[in-house]
Amino acid sequence: MISIGGNVDKGTTAEPSYNTPSNLAFFEDGILKRILSEMKGTDSHVEVITTASEIPEEVGNNYVEAFKRLGCNNVDVIHIRNREDTQIPEYYERIEKADGVMFTGGNQMRLTTIFGGTDIFKLIQQRYENEHFIIAGTSAGAMAMSNTMIYEGQSDESFLKGKVKITTGLAFMKDVIIDSHFVKRGRFGRLAQAVSANPGCIGIGLGEDTGVLVKHGSELEAIGSGLVIIFDGHSIRHSNIADISDGQPISIEHLVVHVMAKGNHYNVKSRKFYAGREAVEAANA
């Protein structure tokens, strides 16, 4: 599984004032290439799923062109717009044959409400759990991968109780909460609130141009050019979030934070940070 922090938030309603220019260069130079290498290289069969986006044709074409520039020509786009579309036999058959899927950005609630409980979702989940099948997602596509999912919350109000909205995600990864555009949009507060309300989860804040490669269900490797911020709430000594009213400021004591750059690793189960692959191998020896 590869979760990516995004570059352009097309279609999200959480913070609509951002107008960052579209740029797929970071995918071409690093993350997109890594997705292919985790599949079968340029021979990979990739299905791009545009469900989260409000401009699916444009977004889908952008990814097809980006993959082509990397030498991968076996890329198709699946435009599932509603739950009825999930029952189209052709889409199911294409995912059966694919080496992986790429969920685009947009609105993560579209992903959970359209895919949840469907046969095509069960197929993706089954292939991911039992085969060498890569699930990648950017922005909303990344946020929907966790079992606890942020779906709304503006940065300037995120330290006020009730201003961060949480629901159930697609749960490809357990016991985590993923947030995207994390550094650029100052989303420290909303992930801190989400983790303080769910301290058994590890918070993963993905910067733009940045992602995490997940192996064995719990081992994270930071990839891309930016930062990944890890929030560990297991050792929180005090939190007032259960005792205050909506709209009041929250307080948290001893929320543990790690900052990861490219090549750093973090294990969600052991809650340990590793500077590089050698440290991970030494710890597991």
Molecular structure report:
With 285 residues, the chain is α/β, with parallel strands linked by helices. It has a domain at 2-155 and 166-174 and 213-224 and 261-284: Class I glutamine amidotransferase (GATase) domain (Rossmann fold), CATH 3.40.50. Helices cover 28% and strands 25% of the residues. The chain is built from eight helices and 17 strands. It has helices at residues 25-38, 56-69, 89-97, 108-115, 119-130, 140-143, 188-197, 277-284, and strands spanning 2-4, 46-49, 75-78, 100-103, 134-138, 148-152, 165-168, 176-179, 202-206, 210-215, 219-224, 228-232, 238-239, 252-253, 256-260, 265-267, 272-274. The strands form four sheets. Strands 3-2-4-5-1-10-11-16-17 form a nine-stranded mixed β-sheet, sandwiched between helices. Strand 2 (46-49), helix 2 (56-69) and strand 3 (75-78) form a beta-alpha-beta unit. It is globular.
Helix and strand content put the structural class at alpha/beta
Q: Report the CATH topology name of one domain.
A: Rossmann fold
Radius of gyration: 18 Å
- Helix-strand pattern: EHEHEHEHHEHEEEHEEEEEEEEEH
List the strand order in the largest sheet.
Answer: 3-2-4-5-1-10-11-16-17
Shape: globular
Helix content: 25-40%
CATH class of one domain equals Alpha Beta
- Count the beta strands: 17
CATH-wise, what's the superfamily of one domain?
Class I glutamine amidotransferase (GATase) domain
What is the CATH architecture annotation of one domain? Answer: 3-Layer(aba) Sandwich
N- to C-terminal distance: 24 Å
Percent range for β-strand residues: 15-25%
- Overall pLDDT level: 90
Low-confidence region ranges: 8-26
Q: Specify the biggest β-sheet.
A: 9 strands, mixed
